[in-house]
Amino acid sequence: MWVQFAPLRLPLRRRLQTAAVLQWVFSFLALAQCCLVLYLVLLLGEGWALAVLYAAWLYLDWDTPARGGRRSAWVRRWTLWRYFRDYFPITLVKTAHLDPSHNYIFGFHPHGVLVAGAFGNFCTEATGFSEQFPGLTPHLLMLPFWFKVPFFRDYIMCAGLVSSEKASACYLLGQERRGQVAVAVVGGPPESLDARPGALTLQVLSRKGFIKTALQQGAALVPVFSFGENELFHQVSNPQGSVIRTIQERLQKAMGLALPLFHARGVFQYSFGLLPFRRPIHTVVGAPILVTKTPHPSREAIDHLHATYLEKLVQLFEEHKGRYGLAEDKHLTLI
């Protein structure tokens, strides 16, 4: 196989961009495991006292990921994230004013492989979320499993990540202080198994939990489409019914985690590796769908709001697809 190596002479800024994305991929794929090993080393070695103290802290702090988390403005504004943004680059596109006197659920689409657009826009300030949407505080919802890993949980909470369990979203949206935004990646891990260049399939038809929560809390719904999210990685062929897909789906049901077999480029060459391709990501935030608070919504009310949400999501995609390089004959497939 022919390997295309990166040029020896590249501007320092491009080297720094690659380093920033390398640490992000490492954090996503291996940092949790490293944190767990570190804790076990401390517990079984001379650092056992520190491990015991942390365990006591963990016990007292156990519910924090479901109670708004513990964000750090300093971490979210690290210079590192600007290099991360510029690698792709990532752009946040505002299409409508969002009143900070309301709370919101952002429905983010598509999941992609590693949710780069959601992280860059809502877990950092690199794309200027606070400047574009003053008075709003974004919280990206993440699988509860990750908040059980020592040390790792504290790091991800600094970026504004919180648990995706229903109680977590209800806590955020039930606060008297308005302007809270729960960012839900609606397709979830199963959607990542279809993430590959050119893919426009969204798993959304049966996803109505976020709709029910919006009604119960009176939170406005905002469709968000991230153009370019699926262009970052290739994925091993895994059509429905194949052996690979069957194993992936069984593992996903057993562990709650999807395991897409993806590949893209490396650090010093462009032919293979786990770093994403340099492809632009344009995350477009749509107009709000105002919701009347309904503590006990009927099935009909949920279905009606869900249909309205899907209509606005498709409309958002159709209105902006040409601007971001998609042909007129390209349309979303909702499953």
Total count of helical runs of at least 4 residues:
12
The Rg value, from CA coordinates, equals 20 Å
Please report which band the strand proportion falls in: under 5%, 5-15%, 15-25%, 25-35%, 35-45% or over 45%: 5-15%
Biggest beta sheet attributes:
7 strands, mixed
Overall SS class: alpha/beta
Oligomerization: single chain
Please provide the ordered H/E string of secondary-structure elements: HHHHEEHHEHEHEHEHEEHEEHE
What is the overall pLDDT average? Answer: 96
State the end-to-end CA separation: 37 Å
Keywords: Acyltransferase, Endoplasmic reticulum, Lipid biosynthesis, Lipid metabolism, Membrane, Transferase, Transmembrane, Transmembrane helix
Protein name: Acyltransferase
Family: Belongs to the diacylglycerol acyltransferase family.
Subcellular location: Endoplasmic reticulum membrane
